[in-house]
Specification:
The protein has 95 residues and is an alpha+beta fold. The chain has three helices and five strands. Helix 1 crosses helix 2.
Length: 95
């Protein structure tokens, strides 16, 4: 099952005892700060969770899988997530 934004806001509401609208504002503000930082090309490190990194992709040859046509893919930036060792251990039941 996927954890949704609404479920995260509900969890903040219950754990921190903030009204739901304030919990939603806090969550939205956090996401906006993360997005703005990544937009600026900077990394976001959350200790014990992981690191969001912006990587530069060079221009490269590609192929349309539907038609088989060769094409050139433009340069672009992508966001990559690298989980921390603590999170990796918890996911693997070692923590």
């Amino acid at each position: 099952m996927t954890l949704t934004k609404g479920q995260l806001v509900d969890s903040i509401h219950k754990q921190v005892d903030l009204p739901k609208n304030k919990s939603s504002q806090v969550f939205d503000s956090l996401l906006e700060m993360i997005k703005k930082t990544l937009e600026d090309g900077e990394d976001v490190l959350v200790s014990g969770f992981g690191k969001f990194c912006v990587k530069e992709k060079r221009k490269r040859r590609g192929r349309n899988p539907h038609t088989g046509e060769d094409l050139m893919l433009d340069e672009r930036r992508v966001v990559v997530f690298r989980c921390s060792g603590v999170l990796r251990d918890k996911v693997n039941g070692e923590g």
